[in-house]
Hints:
There is one protein chain. The protein is of the alpha+beta class and 409 residues long. The chain has helices at residues 2-19, 106-116, 120-128, 192-207, 213-220, 315-327, 342-345, 353-377, 382-404, and strands at 23-27, 38-44, 50-55, 62-67, 79-81, 86-91, 138-143, 149-154, 159-163, 174-177, 225-226, 231-232, 246-248, 258-265, 277-282, 291-293, 339-341. The strands form 4 sheets. Strands 3-4-5-6-7-8-9 form a 7-stranded antiparallel β-sheet, covered by helices on one side. It is 31% helix and 20% strand. It has a single domain (2-404), classed as Penicillin V Acylase, Chain A. The radius of gyration is 20 Å and the shape is globular. Helix 4 crosses helix 5.
Amino acid sequence: MKKIIFLSSFLLLTILISSEACTTAVVSGKYTPDGRPLLWKHRDTWALNNKVMQFTDGKYAYTGLVNSTDPKGKSIWGGFNSAGFAIMNSASYNLNNDTITQSGLEGRLMKEALQTCATIDDFEELLKGLTKPIRLESNFGVIDAQGGAAYFELGNFKYVKIDANDPKVAPFGYLIRTNYSTTGKMGIGGGYIRYVTADKAFKMAVKEDRLTAKTILQEFSRDLTHSLTNTDLNDYDVISENQATMVMFQDYIPRKSTSSSLVVQGVKKGENPVFTTMWTTLGSPLTSVTIPIWLSNKTHLPMIVSYDQTIKDSPLCHLALELKKECFPYEWGTSSKYYMNINAVINADHTGTLQVLKPLEDEVFGLADEVLLKWRNNEIDYAEMQDFYDNLDVVIPKFYSTYFNLNLK
């Protein structure tokens, strides 16, 4: 019986690691080109359908990533508030050396943090007040408008703060967490290969002074290199579009289970938190487009990231997941998630999903950077913000219809 119980526990842990395999990072503003901190969450989960919601039910207004099956937004899986405080997490599997049942309520804690916290110190006070055992095992990444940037590795009975502004622990100004904690037992948990892949990419970006939200989302969330096998799937770009080519796709940063990716770009100390921007990619990063999200009660969120009752999802996520089917056409057996048609992603004819979508996304980033620069130098123009959103609602669905024959109706 003991062997059966142990085996069941092992299988459960394996399932959790494979389904909650996020790759995340906290970046100090001291090491970014514009001096603003960054918070990255590349989300892997069973909940593939995601949307964005905006709330006013706390001390601070806030916006965040929500499962499309969560109509009231009871759990937030990454977001920021009107004070410039932002939070996300990655599940950890090497902190709690006990048999205490976990609650799985990381999203509830993050919602409470967004409702009540203005600074990293506020979040630490929130953690101190939690009833023990906490029934959580997670790495919470946070930034604030005061220049703060840190992880809190939280287990059942304690937490440890790791500061991205401390050169002793973050010599290059960034911290990365996958599915283990540095204060836990090393060698167990998950994401060690993804950690090394991400670390290589971050180090090079720091060296080249291009550690930006765009770099993270366009390159790291779509990184097709494997740090253990030294495989680079970009080498398949010499194959023509009509030659479907299946490749093993396991332990890369993007995965079949990736549901979204976001980077919260914070503000400099003394800068108005209203300029905090959540660059958001819903659905698979291999088939989606990143758009900026700002927090305002004078505008409404883009319809493409908001819940649509007809499709039971956000339109952007829906389109990205439909297109994703071309990348993962093999569906036989539980191991099917490890095989991808690389030819649908990149090819010699430049008709792969990444190749077709990049020019549109480059344009979105460029236009967003222009309006942000103008707003920072003057004042924020909410009418212009709404026009920007409304334009996205028209252009992006039309793009998917034109180039991929995918329609919302």
